[in-house]
Amino acid sequence: MILCYRIGMRLIGIDYGTKRVGLAVSDEAGHFALPRTVIANTPTLLAEVCKIAIDEGVQEIIIGESRQYDMSANRILPEILAFKQALEEGGLKVHLELEFMTSVQAGRWQGKTDKLDASAAAIILQSFLDRRAQAAPSKDEDQN
Questions:
Q1: Which tens digits make up the pLDDT trace of 34-71?
Q2: d(CA 128, CA 33)
Q3: What one-character DSSP code corresponds to residue 47?
Q4: Cα–Cα nearest to 66, from 117, 110, 107, 111
Q5: How far is residue 101's CA from residue 111's CA, in Å, rounded to a whole number?
C-alpha cells in the first residue's frame, strides 16, 4: 500500500467563545500547536479567521466542540456549529475536536493573560494532532 501525505500541512485550532476567540496554528509538518492570537467575537470574526487561514497557508481548521459532561449540547454549541458551517461554505475543511475546560487548563499552565484563549486553542489543536498521529500507520507498517 502506498500512502501519500501532503508536506506543509498547516492547521488552525479555534477556541470559540461568545466574547473572544482564541487561535492557534500548527507547524508546517502538522506535529505541534502554537498559540497565535485572540480575536474579539464580532461580526468581522469570520473574515479575520479566513484572512489568517490564507496568510498561514492553512489546509484544515479544528474547532473545539464544547459540550456538557453528559455529552449533551451546551449553550454555545449552536454558535460553534454555525461558525463551522460558515467556514466550510468558504471552502475550508473543518473538524470538531471534543474539549472540556481547556481555558481552565491553559490558565493553570500560564496564569490568566491576554493570550489565554489562544493557549486553549493550542490545547484543542494539539489534542487533534496527537489523535491523528496515533491513528496514522507507522513508517514500518507502510513498508510491509
A1: 999 999 999 999 999 999 999 988 979 999 998 878 88
A2: 10
A3: H
A4: 117
A5: 14
Q: Which residues pair with 38 in a beta bridge?
A: 22
- Domain residue limits, the chain: 10-135
Give 109-124 as a DSSP string. Answer: HH-S-TTHHHHHHHHH
Amino acid at 131: R
CA distance 30 to 57: 12
Contact 32, 52 (CB under 8 A): no
Strand-by-strand arrangement of the 20-26 sheet: 33-40, 20-26, 10-16, 58-66, 93-99
Per CATH, the architecture of 10-135 is what? 2-Layer Sandwich (3.30)
Cα→Cα distances 37→14, 64, 72, 89, Å: 10, 16, 29, 23
Dump pLDDT digits (tens) for 2-33. Answer: 333 444 579 999 999 999 999 999 998 889 99
